[in-house]
Specification:
Two copies of one chain form a homodimer. Chain A is α/β, with parallel strands linked by helices and 507 residues long. Chain A contains nine helices and 30 strands. Chain A has an eight-stranded parallel sheet. The first copy, chain A, has a seven-stranded mixed sheet with strand order 1-7-6-3-4-5-2, covered by helices on one side. A six-stranded antiparallel sheet of chain A has the order 23-24-25-30-27-28, covered by helices on one side. In chain A, a hairpin with a 4-residue loop joins β9 and β10.
């Protein structure tokens, strides 16, 4: 007797079968599976993977014995089988969910404090460069990365991707330079694609990338559409769009570390209207049986994040100066987690969104964190290889990334899940655990950030009796100094430098 | 025959006479003078200066022969006389006026670009310390200083002033410390003043200070009322207030370098209402015959700067983060010059308004300037002498002040009077001369500031033919690099550092 197939909880269970390769299997065939365990029954669409091969994927949310039944237009009899879902391995905590209204946790309850970065098309570069990106990710604290399924056309991004999502021939890119590339933006002319026939290898490779991230404990914030396009992928017909969305959903939904970003800078996709975005969201809600996180990212005006399908805000700052400092206001506005996926990048390119200092980017991370939200990193340093992390991945040349591990460690010390801004305290950002109720006179935990301010000392008074373990954190120099247990009128000497924080934990 | 008395244009001409010293001359006597030249006739109140001495002062606005006639309740016959107004000396440009709606110029037409500082009670310190303050002012680029007529009671300000404005005895200050001083704020208890009997020496000394400033080319932005008070001067009766205002106006109006700041942080003077401020403003408009600049400074909510008596906005920033960056919006709101008298000070004290870096303060000055307004300096470094510039004057310990001369020099190169913000340019602050009309395709002059952004290069295009002299300014390192004459597509390499500016002047 054959041993029963097995998969870990929140792993990918895949059923493969042979089927027709003639005609256009992408549009003419269908396949789907139903997976049943003691606690759930899930129906998921499958997809054509080329060469007569069809697949259906499933992510089990519980342990135990499951059965499946796969049906397809081309199958006379459903395929059936049984498999065992084993306990999750140590580093597997399940998909990330919204927790505590403004925060996130893995499905097993472990808090997830987002430390994101952006590398739009790292996955579409050469094997060597992808390996370098993964190595960089491995050595840093990022636990989310935003990247695109479609290739990207933009300044510093005029080369060909390693593959295309469709069968066909792209326009001749040798005519492009950094002055004329705008003219080709969002136009299909010069390309010759069959937009009803996917190129499975493109997607298989992206899946491999998602798996590599998963194994590094990194969430894959998949940008499904975006405006930086010279191939016409941003201006397909409604039918082509929907076909694409369903294919993406069938392929990627079973990966626990996937988040859906409907678009980068949705408002720059001139041919798409709110009705289109809402239709795509409807397709996700229908076709992703696991409820992965869903959002959409703006360039200028915000999307209406109050829409019920939006699980969290994915924000690009709208002001050059005040950025992460709006986090607490945006929380009040939308009552959802606030993720500041773009608040300018560390770098030195001419573009105003890509040339802030490492200090300022780290400062924005801390401001966001202490106001109950999450900032995102990106790096845009000019370099001899002309490989900018923000787009192509590779190496990091900057300084900000080194400081995120400390922030992440400090966030993990929060009692419960998540911080919130504790009202107005002039000249400081005072955070308390989300659970602290407003009227509670003394909270159990304070994380107080001084941003660009440079106090030489600070005085605090909560009550006469509560004892706090006090630590002084230099968020830039990455030191944590234990000042012992204090109570009553608490006086703390500080170094009069920027970027200091004070942590006070009830003993 | 006696030689005719003379005074320079915009100098102080003073008529002195003996009068009664019995009773209360401050309330029971009056004196006023009328001064007539070819182009003006001015009536000004005089004042009692103690010891039976009465004075009337006058600032002539024109050259030539003037006559005067001084009347008083105690004089049976008016005093009359003739004097000669001579041309202004080289450094005397007259009082500062609003010019070009949003800017300032001296009465002789010379543009005045405000580079202000704040030393609330420098004038009430010891002779040695006043001398040190004047020496510091002499060696720096400040051309305006805000300071108080009343003494100040606040953290770092608990000592006694050199003199008091009234006859009487102050409360015992030995009970004060930096924890309990708040309890005495705005209260009269423990003091014993005759609030109808001024102490002329206090005012004579302040006049001497105003004269010293005048001779250094510095405007005296006189703060007439303020809330940081343990003597009851902030909660006098309406009659006492009015008596005080009239005395101040009679004494100081004839000094060309005086500006009226009705209050520092008017909104913290709990016992005063809008009607009171409007009444004081009415007294100024009635009693200051020279129309010196008038404003009022907020702590929290702005005063209604649209009131007709307000000549310019005297703003304290309302946000820890976005400060000078609001300048262009406030100009639109009030259509008056925007002076940011308090946007946080360079320093390291615990207070959030007094611990920003020199870099950030200089950055705010440039932001304000390139958005068509004027920022103000202050310094609050802890130091062994416990003398903080912001309050007591003395030495400067910081770095920001060294950078203001360059800013002032660059501002003086503006064609016409004043800059304005040239609309939205992402990632830069582009200023053009106020005179440039909106539709003018190419302006004659650009001053472009990159703030905390670090572009490695910038490209500009105005038209194919206009030639510009291009200079690259490092506002922090104080260098100006001439890049020669350029036209058409202008490419400028920049060092990828913060705080750079580019100046482009039509050849």
């Amino acid at each position: 007797m054959e041993q029963m197939q097995s998969v870990e909880r929140w792993g990918v269970f895949e059923v493969t079968c042979e089927g027709p390769s003639e005609g256009n299997p992408f549009t003419e065939q269908w396949i789907r599976g139903t997976f049943s365990g003691k606690n759930e029954t899930v129906t998921a669409d499958g997809f054509y993977d080329g060469d007569g091969c069809y697949k259906v994927r499933f992510m089990p949310s519980f342990e135990g014995v499951y059965t499946y039944q796969v049906e397809a237009g081309f199958l006379e009899q459903p395929l059936t089988g049984t498999f065992q879902v084993l306990p999750a391995e140590e580093r597997n905590h399940g998909p990330v969910r919204v927790a505590n209204t403004y925060h996130f946790a893995y499905e097993d309850g472990t808090p997830y404090y987002s430390v994101g970065t952006t590398c739009y098309v790292w996955a579409l570069q050469s094997d060597e460069q992808i390996a370098e990106t993964l190595e960089t990710l491995k050595n840093n604290a990022f636990n989310k990365i935003r990247f695109c399924i479609f290739p990207k056309h933009y300044d510093y991004n005029l080369g060909e991707p390693r593959s295309y999502p469709y069968e066909g021939t792209p326009m001749d890119s040798s005519v492009l330079n950094s002055e004329n590339f705008w003219q080709y933006q969002g136009k299909a002319e010069g390309n010759d694609w069959d937009l009803e026939r996917f190129h499975p290898e493109h997607f298989r490779h992206l899946e491999w990338c998602v798996e590599q991230l998963r194994d590094l404990g990194i969430e894959a914030d998949l940008i499904v559409m975006h405006p930086y396009d010279r191939w016409g992928f941003s201006c397909m017909t409604q039918e082509q769009d929907d076909l694409y969305w369903k294919y993406v959903l069938a392929r990627f939904s079973a990966y626990r570390n996937v988040w859906w970003s409907l678009a980068n800078e949705y408002d720059l996709l001139r041919s798409k209207k709110v009705e289109d975005w809402e239709r795509y969201a409807g397709i996700i809600c229908e076709k992703d049986p696991y409820g992965h996180l869903r959002s959409i990212h703006n360039c200028g005006p915000f999307y209406d994040y109050s829409r019920p399908w939006v699980t969290h805000c994915s924000i690009q700052r709208q002001d050059m100066y005040r950025t992460a400092e709006y986090t607490d206001e945006w929380r009040i506005r939308w009552k959802k987690p606030v993720v500041l996926d773009e608040i300018a990048y560390e770098g030195n390119i001419p573009h105003g969104w890509g040339n802030i200092t490492a200090e300022e980017l780290v400062r924005r991370f801390w401001e966001a964190a202490c106001r109950g939200g999450y900032a995102g990193h990106g790096e845009t340093y000019l370099n001899p290889e002309n490989v900018l992390w923000w787009s192509h991945g590779g190496k990091l040349h900057g300084e900000s990334q080194k400081r995120f591990r400390l922030l992440h460690e400090i966030l993990q010390e929060t009692p419960g899940i998540g911080l919130r801004y504790d009202g107005e305290h002039f000249g400081e950002v005072r955070a308390v655990p989300e659970e602290s109720w407003a009227e509670q006179p003394v909270k159990d935990y304070y994380l107080i950030y001084y941003s660009f301010m440079r106090p030489s000392s600070k005085d605090y008074y909560f009550d006469d009796t509560t004892e706090f373990q006090v630590k002084v954190i230099d968020t830039w120099n990455m030191t944590v100094e234990d000042r012992g247990v204090m109570k009553g009128k608490i006086h703390i000497e500080l170094p009069g430098r920027q970027y200091m924080a004070v942590q006070m934990k009830k003993v």
